[in-house]
Design brief:
The complex is a heterodimer. Helices cover 68% and strands 1% of the residues of chain A. By secondary structure, chain A is mainly alpha-helical. Chain A folds into 2 domains: 324 residues, Formate dehydrogenase/DMSO reductase domain (Formate dehydrogenase/DMSO reductase fold), CATH 1.20.1630.10; 102 residues, no CATH class. In chain A, helix 1 packs antiparallel against helix 3, helix 5 runs antiparallel to helix 6 and helix 5 packs antiparallel against helix 10. Helix content of chain B is 81%, strand content 0%. Chain B folds into 2 domains: 281 residues, Up-down Bundle (Formate dehydrogenase/DMSO reductase fold); 31 residues.
């Protein structure tokens, strides 16, 4: 049977060596989100400064013309291309997930594309003709650029928020119930506040490069600092976001999973430092900020963005689309069939490596289908290290009752033979892949015990669907 | 009218073809313009066509990438499994198009800004865009080669050296030359238009010769329900328009060539798609039943009006 004809779409799986796939998409995604949000805030800031310039602030206009070149060269080029990279990386990491998102939201994605096209057109027109345009046309062009970039955020934000909190869409509420989902507004407002802050901090760096006296730079810095004031609302917005999260996701962020909690702490701590400096130092005490300090704060903001995106991705576990698709690219309603037929019975793709026994080869196929999306064998989030101290029976029990072992893991989507094959594969890997590995034959009693554990765990996830 | 009917897949196909044609105009300008500017730089000639191309290339690449998001979106609706599988089979070698584009983008800015590094920058840019063109052509072939996926995956083979790739690239190279000449001719002076007419004719001849050779070798010509003949007629009309332009650069020949090239582009997009129309993946209920089309239509109208206003504002500023 051709791979194209299977009922469940099977895709070939690529291995990124010691990098787990979450790190690959996270690395691209964080850079893209940071640059895209900078472009939005930068656009708004330029409109504000252009308005100041036309109302008599002498240096504001020269700031706009200088800042825009930076914006174009950095965010247009790398931002636009990392956007394309996100499509390709997402396909590499979770083709079925991006396929579902496209299927459900393609008209809204196309809508976002139109706004992106307007943003790029307005931006380039200003870049090329801005110095030759009259004041009202400059202002309108910048307003259009800022509006289009924010509208682009609005549409993509709804789609991304739907992954985490599909809300009434799960009850058949339709596309708008999915788009205006519970985390849509807190997420949109939070990202808008981040955008203005990034625009202001980058603006402070550019102001410090301007060849004007320090007191005139200070005037511009005070104006730019006001633009970062929305950061004061971020704690409230973060609490709102936490409140609308599913209870199990919230519990992991608030202590249930220490890595997640630590990333929450990093995001909150870095945001607090940036916000404290902006609110207390720049706005209340009207301090001057030099280029080095502004760069440091922008670096902190990058750290906060990175940690925040990690938290957003991690909070979805065990799903990529809550209630609909597990991180293994398996739907909840497919688990029972895979328990009966086996995890890889219909997987058309062969293995690339050779294994000394059929059972180990089966284990490798199971690992590829059920583990590889989030784990590596020996690199980041390594299966060998996570299970190194487990006994054989402990391995069997923990894998069979996977969603009970850890609440953020999906149910094991295979049968008892698959569990046993994976157990033996892990033993073989832990022993550094000996050529003459002889696994004990799986006794009927062992397989029966695994089957009982699978039945006890059931095929439902540990947490609620919403 | 074939290949369109009343289905939602037809609407996706129409939008795919329209956005693909728009994307092709921009990327053709980038690929052919970069090579043209490189040759001018190597010859050390003060060529106004090359100077204008260098000036516009970064914008054209930005526009090409932006316009490319449209077909990238709709191809995932039409051929989702094939597109994703081809991406995955080619793996990191396919993903390399993104860094290649980033390097190419900055190379174009460097070529615009620096006289000293112009040749190097344009050479790097041309290499990057050539790699991207080859990669897309290869991906197109891999999408259709589902019989080869398992073997490619098992062997870890990231390249698909299909015999059809070289002629496809040759046809594209000719088409890109003709499209570049069409866009570049409008702001050009009379003598420059003559040179561009020569380039366009060379491009059209390359397309026709390669297509004819492929048809002879394969011993088949897909009429694509008449679209192939429309394409041929439009290409001939474009060639006549360019001939007219070469004789009278300020006459109506350029308008004829532009209109005919546009028709050829649309017909060519349909002919290119014809062999794989049978592979369109029907019946994904979530996609077929998805809402939001009215919002897209309204936004498209607003966006088109906004872009038209921007262009008018920019033209007024340019004087």
């Amino acid at each position: 049977m051709s791979p194209i004809d299977s009922t469940i779409p099977y895709y070939p799986v690529n291995d990124f060596g010691p990098l787990m796939k979450g790190l690959v998409i996270g690395g691209v995604g964080i850079v893209h989100v940071f640059l895209a949000q900078f472009a939005i805030g930068g656009g708004m800031l330029m409109w504000y400064f252009e308005r100041l310039g036309q109302r008599g602030q002498p240096d504001a206009r020269s700031f706009v013309d200088g800042y825009f070149k930076v914006l174009v060269l950095v965010s247009f080029v790398v931002g636009a291309l990392t956007g394309v990279a996100m499509w390709f990386t997402t396909i590499q990491v979770g083709a079925r997930t991006i396929g579902l998102m496209i299927d459900e939201f393609h008209w809204l994605w196309a809508t976002e594309w139109v706004w992106f096209a307007v943003e790029i057109t307005a931006g380039y027109a200003f870049y090329r003709y801005g110095p030759r345009l009259a004041g009202p046309a400059r202002l309108r062009l910048l307003a259009l650029y800022a509006l289009a970039s924010w509208m682009s955020l609005l549409w993509i934000n709804g789609i991304l928020a739907w992954q985490l909190t599909p809300g009434r869409w799960l009850d058949g509420g339709g596309i708008w119930a999915g788009f205006f989902n519970p985390s849509f507004w807190p997420s949109l407002l939070f990202r808008t506040a981040v955008s203005t802050t990034l625009g202001a901090l980058a603006g402070c760096i550019v102001i410090n490069t301007m060849d004007i006296p320090r007191d005139r730079r200070a005037v511009l810095i005070r104006r730019a600092s006001r633009f970062a004031a929305p950061i004061a609302a971020m704690p409230l917005l973060a609490l709102w976001f936490l409140a609308v999260l599913p209870s199990d996701s919230r519990s992991w962020l608030l202590g249930g999973s220490m890595p997640m909690t630590m990333f929450v702490g990093v995001a909150a701590g870095a945001s607090l430092l940036v916000g404290g400096y902006v609110i207390v130092g720049l706005i209340a005490q009207r301090l001057y900020i030099n280029g080095a300090t502004a760069t440091l704060l922008l670096g902190l903001a990058f750290g906060a963005t990175a940690a925040g995106e990690f938290v957003r991705e991690g909070a979805r576990k065990p799903y990529t689309v809550r209630g609909v698709l597990y991180s293994t690219s398996i739907r909840p309603d497919e688990v029972a069939a895979l328990r009966a037929a086996g995890a890889t019975a219909r997987d058309p793709y062969p293995l690339r490596d050779r294994y000394p026994t059929e059972q180990l080869a089966r284990g490798a196929r199971v690992e590829r289908a059920l583990c590889d999306a989030c784990h590596t064998m020996r690199g980041a989030n390594a299966l060998v290290e996570l299970t190194r101290t487990w006994t054989d029976d402990q391995l069997r029990l923990n894998l069979a009752k996977l969603q009970r072992t850890k609440g953020f893991m999906p149910p094991f989507a295979g049968n008892a033979l698959d569990v046993e094959a994976l157990v033996q594969l892990l033993r073989w890997e832990r022993a550094d892949r000996p050529a003459g590995f002889a696994a004990p034959a799986a006794s009927p009693d062992v397989l029966a015990q695994i089957a009982r554990w699978l039945d006890e765990a059931g095929t439902a996830p540990a947490g609620e669907a919403r | 009218m074939w290949p369109f009917d009343a289905s939602i897949e037809s609407l996706w196909l129409a939008l795919y073809l329209a956005s693909f044609a728009l994307h092709a105009v921009f990327v053709s300008y980038v690929a052919a313009g970069t090579v043209y500017a490189l040759i001018a730089a190597l010859r050390g000639s003060a060529d106004p066509i090359a100077a204008r191309a260098r000036d516009w290339l970064p914008f054209m690449l930005g526009a090409g990438i932006t316009a490319g998001v449209g077909p990238l979106l709709f191809v995932q609706l039409l051929y989702q499994r094939r597109f994703y599988t081809a991406n995955l089979v080619m793996g990191p070698r396919w993903g390399a198009v993104v860094p290649a584009l980033i390097v190419g983008f900055y190379a174009l800015y460097l070529a615009k800004a620096s006289d000293q590094r112009r040749r190097l920058a344009l050479g790097v840019g041309a290499a990057c865009f050539g790699f991207v063109a080859w990669s897309w052509t290869e991906l197109h072939q891999v999408m259709e080669a589902d019989g080869a996926w398992r073997a490619m995956y098992a062997a870890g083979e990231r390249f698909h050296l299909d015999a059809a790739i070289a002629p496809r690239l040759a046809i594209w190279a000719g088409a890109m030359l003709a499209l570049f000449a069409t866009v570049a001719a409008w702001p050009a002076a009379a003598a420059e238009r003559r040179r561009l007419a020569g380039l366009a004719l060379a491009g059209l001849i390359a397309c026709a010769a390669t297509s004819a050779a492929v048809a002879v070798v394969r011993r088949e010509l897909d009429p694509a329900h008449g679209w192939t003949y429309l394409l041929a007629a439009a290409a001939i009309a474009a060639a006549l328009g360019w001939g007219w332009t070469a004789r009278r650069p300020d006459g109506p020949g350029l308008s004829v060539a532009t209109a005919a090239t546009t028709a050829a582009l649309v017909a060519g997009a349909v002919v290119r798609e014809a062999p794989r129309l049978a592979l369109i993946e029907h019946g994904r209920a979530t996609a077929v039943g998805s809402g939001g089309l009215p919002v897209f239509v309204i936004t498209l109208a607003i966006g088109a009006a906004a872009i038209a206003w921007v262009v008018r504002t920019a033209r007024a500023a340019a004087g």
